[in-house]
Amino acid sequence: MIKWWKILAALIIVYTLIWGMLGPVPKLNILYETIRNVYYHVPIWFAMLFQMGFSVVCAVNYLYKSDLRSDLISEQAAQVGLFFSLPGLLTGCMWAKFTWGTWWTFQDPKLNGVAIAILIYLAYFILRSSITDELKRARISAVYNIFAFVMMFVFIMILPRLTDSLHPGNGNNPAFGKYDLDNHMRMVFYPAIIGWILLSLWILDIKKRISILKYNAENE
Amino acid sequence: MSKQQLTALIKKEFVLEFRQKSTLAGIAVYIIATVFISALSFKKIIHPIVWNALFWVIFMFIAVNVSSKSFTQETKGKGLYNYIYYNARQFILSKILYNMLLMSVLSVFTFFFYSWFVGSMVEDLPLFLIVLIFSSTAFSGVLSLMSAIASKAGNNMSLMAILSFPVLMPLLLVSIKLSKNAIDGLAWSVSANYLLVLIMLNFVVITLATLLFNYLWRE
User: Fold this and answer.
1) Taking CB atoms and an 8 Å limit, are B153 and A131 in contact across chains?
2) CA-to-CA distance for B55 and B111, rounded, in angstroms?
3) Which of A15, A33, A84, B165 is exposed most, by the fewest CB atoms within 10 A?
């Protein structure tokens, strides 16, 4: 059975891919046509953060209810989040190359934050794989997940506001919303956010069903 | 939870530590050797940024080493005993407080030797010491919980490093920024924001650790 929101996700993403390339954008110095990346780069990050947040919610839920299903979903959501960090990183690197002149810079707190986030989730999977007992694994990795997410949140959300960032909206750089994001762009940008988050949920749904089937097969 | 029990637990940590003087002496030798190696390999550090970075890298490795053993000594029998007599919050708080005290002393000790061998570049010593103490407390808070997690997951040293390094990063960056300000002797008003973040991180870390340890403890 195909659910309606999956069709919606596909339609929105096709719409933003096509209209994002063809639609009118404001002509700005330095950015020029790369401003279209705002339709892809930013929504992919939103989808990643959404999945990681979802993973933490499931981890908290596991600690309260001790339901192994929440633990399964928590792990799958973290995997999807990590997966989404790759296209986010790629689009970001390309954009940085054309506007800042470099693929990667250690000066920018948001870039460092993403690198740390990836390291944290890799550590999370290593932790999971080093514990064999599944109840114990669920409990301990949930604890690490929550703790690490809070530290990552501090890194991504609070520290960049204290230092200069090359990103818009930080350290005296104007945010896109203020000047650049005109109504044409909004028509693509906001649907794109919804579309990518729905797509990440779709992937999560498939992965969740596979993992539950696997779990049941192993425990028969 | 009573204060008496908490102090009894902290006292126990101290007694255990001083009964086995070799571990404490081991850490002291570790610190001196590390500082000496860096002094020999760098010869003379001219740039304050290098001085700062090297100090905090040494600090981080010492912190991980000191805190990683806080749960390795817990045997199954001892764990059961503690489980019956104390609650999770007291237990982790005692570990954190003990590690905080130990780490604060050791960080000042490290700074002393580092300035002796490598040379000091700090202009604003009071600010630097404040940063050192608050970073030590925050580091021990994070590392106590990470040590508990690593010990539950089979007690290997590399897991402790893998788990804690990325989580320590925000703390480390704030500390490096603050100590750079202290080295340059900038006005305190410049550092006020960061100092506030560091103190806030202390609270966040301790609260989270006490809340979450409850779930780690139950077998």
Assistant:
1) yes
2) 8
3) A33
